[in-house]
Task: inverse folding
């Protein structure tokens, strides 16, 4: 039962995949191949990538790490621990699978367009509710992760709180703005989707021109923050069992 539950939970956590996608963006940039980097970025974001320069490509990669650290990693860990508290090993597996299923439905249907607006509304709202607590805990995990990585822990907290509502999603900016503060860069700003520009505000007041090395730092921050999050959540879960 232990190995079965561990295997199921492992399959719902996409940290390795998240970092691999970021590497697939960064390595072509280091080789001077922006077309390949844009193609890799287009695999994980919905924005238009065909005309992006190096700095905007890196920005997209970092924002994806900050947002999907919540969706693809931390929320699954959170619901696995929550499920374990209520149902032991089967509950842990069920909790993680439940979160991944809801997240996948949102990815398939949760779009605000003519085709999916009404059909996908329940999936989108359910996804927002399920990520609500993990997103806010992720802010503190990123701040602690930044401390361990020698980055700007205080700025991660400040920017995450300051910009938490500066995105249509109620959860995304907790991670993205925290990454901006921790890395000392500026993220956000105008973004083109389907040929139309969305006037997002900027997150953070750091350096505006981004380089491939910033994406490498963001990858390290994502891994350390995920480990910190897992330690916090499992620690709290262990205390609740006593």
Result:
């Amino acid at each position: 039962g232990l190995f079965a539950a561990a295997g199921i939970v492992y399959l719902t956590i996409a940290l390795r995949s998240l970092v691999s996608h970021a590497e697939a963006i960064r390595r072509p940039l280091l080789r001077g191949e922006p077309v390949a980097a844009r193609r890799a970025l287009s695999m994980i974001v919905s924005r238009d990538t065909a005309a992006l320069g190096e700095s905007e490509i890196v920005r997209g990669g970092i924002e994806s790490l900050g947002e999907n650290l919540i969706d693809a990693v931390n929320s699954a860990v959170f619901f696995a621990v929550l499920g374990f508290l209520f149902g032991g090993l089967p509950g842990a597996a069920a909790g993680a699978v439940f979160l991944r299923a809801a997240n996948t439905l949102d990815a398939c249907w949760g779009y605000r367009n003519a085709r999916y607006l009404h059909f996908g509304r329940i999936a989108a709202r359910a996804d927002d509710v399920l990520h609500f607590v993990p997103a806010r805990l992720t802010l503190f995990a990123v701040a602690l992760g930044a401390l361990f990585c020698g980055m700007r822990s205080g700025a991660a907290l400040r920017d995450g709180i300051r910009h938490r509502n500066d995105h249509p999603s109620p959860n995304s900016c907790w991670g993205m703005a925290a990454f901006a503060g921790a890395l000392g860069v500026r993220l956000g700003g105008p973004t083109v989707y389907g040929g139309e520009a969305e006037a997002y505000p900027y997150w953070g007041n750091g350096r505006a021109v981004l380089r491939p090395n910033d994406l490498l730092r963001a990858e390290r921050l994502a891994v350390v923050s995920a480990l910190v999050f897992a330690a916090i959540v499992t620690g709290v879960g262990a205390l609740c069992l006593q």
Notes: Residues 54-109 form the longest helix (56 residues). The chain is about 70% helix and 5% strand. The mean pLDDT is 95. The first strand starts at residue 187 and ends at 193.
